[in-house]
Amino acid sequence: MSKQAELERQLKKVSMEYRKFNAEQQEFAIKEIGRIRLEIIDMLSEYSGSDGTIKKQRLNKLLRELESIEKLVRDTGMDALSQVISETASFTNDGIKKSLSDVVGAAAISGVAFDKINKNVLRYMVNRLGADDLVLSDRVWNFAGDQRAELTKVIRSGIIRGDSVNTISANVRKVYDNDAWKIRRLVVTEGNTAHRVATAYSAQQSQVVKAVRVHRGKANRPDHRCTQLELEDRYGMGPGLYKPTDSEIYMMHINCTGYLTYEIDPKYL
Ligand SMILES: [Zn+2]
């Protein structure tokens, strides 16, 4: 197997392992945010009378307390996503460092400041303005705000109906269960983008990388931007080849699991 093919194989493996790691990261974020539900359950118990229901007169005061819950969701969500991004950058660069030195040799990683790249990936991800004109914290705040609106709805209607705290708590749980996909989408999108940014940043610093190759995500849909970019020959270098500074390939669309590999300058092969 040629060195180029071997590097391709190893970098692909890093990305496939990252997909598995991303699945763990999704569970982590869901669990972190899910923990806040227990605070709501405690709150409902505090407001409940001896008959296990909450008096309508206490409704507004209780709903106002959801403000602190919303803030907790924002803070917890940002902490969880920052951790996802940082761990993704380290995971990715550890794999790249090993693959490059293994296949191409020490020259491939000489002068590449991996620790600094990891920090720069986090900075990029926190400040990245999406096609939605939002930055990461806006997306987390929107999530927290939407969740609060749903919680307000189920708690208000439960109290007005005279439901027991147990019934209201079960409906609160449903809100959390229904929101899990939104957290997954955030972690898939932000995590995979961080994975591609880390790959591209390291490519920018390695003297042996001539271009980066786009590989579409597992969906394989012709309307997905990653599939289009994989087929496009933008620079006459061949289909799917881009400069590591082309930020368009960092985030190709929401929920994208596409990834990047390296084309090595022939003089290092
Ligand atoms: Zn994609």
Describe this structure in words.
It is built from 7 helices and 3 strands. α1 runs antiparallel to α3 (59-103), α3 runs antiparallel to α5 and α4 packs across α6. The chain has one domain (3-210). The two termini are 12 Å apart. With 269 residues, the chain is mainly alpha-helical. The radius of gyration is 23 Å and the shape is elongated. Zinc ion binds next to loops. It comes from Bacillus sonorensis. This is Phage protein.
Unreliable residue runs? none
How many strands appear in the DSSP assignment?
Answer: 3
Tally of discrete structural domains: 1
How far is it from the N-terminal to the C-terminal residue, by CA?
12 Å
Output the structural class: mainly alpha
Number of helices: 7
Biggest β-sheet description = 3 strands, antiparallel
Features:
269 residues; mainly alpha; three-stranded antiparallel β-sheet; 7 helices; 66% helix; 6% strand; binds zinc ion; Phage protein
Give the topology, please.
Elements lengths: L2 H32 L1 H12 L11 H45 L10 H14 L8 H26 L3 H41 L3 E7 L9 H7 L9 E2 L16 E6 L5
The protein binds zinc ion.
Zinc ion binds next to loops.
Please outline what is shown here.
By secondary structure, the chain is mainly α. It is built from 7 helices and 3 strands. The chain has helices at about 5-35, 35-45, 60-105, 115-125, 135-160, 165-205, 225-230; strands spanning about 210-215, 240, 260-265.
